Amino acid sequence: MKVFVSVPYELIVQKYLNQIIEHKIDIEIGLKAEVLDRFFFSEFKRVAEEFQKAEIKTTIHLPFMDLSPGALDPWIRDLSIKRIIQAMERATLFEPLNLVLHTGYHPFYHREVAEEWKEVFKETLQEILRKAEELDLSLSLENVFEPEPEFLKDILETFKGKVFWCFDPAHARVFSKKHELTWLEALYPYLKEIHCHDNRGEIDEHLAIGKGVIEFEKIWEFLKEKEIKPLLVSEAHTEEDTLYNRNYLLNLEF
After folding, report:
1. Which alpha helices (DSSP H) does the chain contain, by range?
2. Which one, 17, 111, 169, 228, has least CB within 10 Å?
């Protein structure tokens, strides 16, 4: 079972690098926009080389704050694409097993133009996938504010075999209209990665597994039945919960 811990890049270099290497912790690196502007290419390369020397496996979470790759405003869309591609180019240094991308869909802004937004996003995704192919990178879309699995399924089916799904059951519980198991049942053929964190059904708390209401045991049962072994990423937000999640996930059997 491949288990990763989500850590923002700035915390890796400021606090956790030695600990990651000492304990051989595989990492999902969070690349924020400010990190891409703040750190030189040579600094990213140095960290990547240390990870590779220690045989640390990685995935990459691409920037998402303020980005809108499906924006109807072409200026906003073009800037979003440029930032995402910049992050993809940095990501290649780490030889990641997967890249995670948010679609940028938000019901408060896009509900009334959802179909138009989706068509624009598909055009954007074609451009991003051309870059991913050039860089030999694998890309997965994460469910965040999408209302139901069918919304993402249309996109995943359009790019079947080229783009995959990062399942976030906690997002499904608090942001969508459908239960997390409904999402899994609908989209499991596209599954590549799962973000593992819990909440109490109201807000996106990023708690340790078992501290909330997400039905993880049923998720594991489903995956075992389907003989699927996705990448598992702890996305808890405290050190204590992160340690618990990693140990829990490493001991799963399916």
Report:
1. 9-11, 17-23, 33-38, 41-53, 74-91, 107-110, 114-135, 149-158, 169-175, 180-187, 216-226, 239-250
2. 111
Provide the sign of the torsion angle of the four alpha carbons 135, 160, 29, 5, taken in this order.
Answer: negative
Q: What value does the CA radius of gyration of the chain take, rounded to a whole number of Å?
A: 17
User: Could you tell me the two tokens for 109?
Assistant: 């802004």
pTM above 0.85, yes or no: yes
What's the rounded Cα separation, in Å, for the pair 181 and 102? Answer: 20
Number of domains composing the chain: 1
- Per the listing, tokens 């608090």 go with 174
Task: With H, G, I as helix, E, B as strand and everything else as coil, classify residue 8.
Answer: strand
Distance CA 69, CA 248 (A): 35
The vertex-238 CA angle with 56 and 212, nearest 5°, equals 110
User: Residue 134 belongs to a domain with what CATH number?
Assistant: 3.20.20.150
| pLDDT averaged per 10 residues in sequence order, the chain, 254 residues | 96 97 98 96 97 98 97 96 98 98 90 86 98 98 97 97 98 97 98 98 97 98 97 97 97 88
- Token pair recorded at residue 21: 């290497």
Do residues 36 and 86 make contact, with C-beta atoms less than 8 angstroms apart? yes
Phi and psi at 22, nearest 5°, equal: -60, -40
Enclosing domain of residue 192: 3-250
Those residues whose C-beta lies under 8 Å from the C-beta of residue 51, and which sit 6 or more positions away, are 20, 21, 27, 58, 94
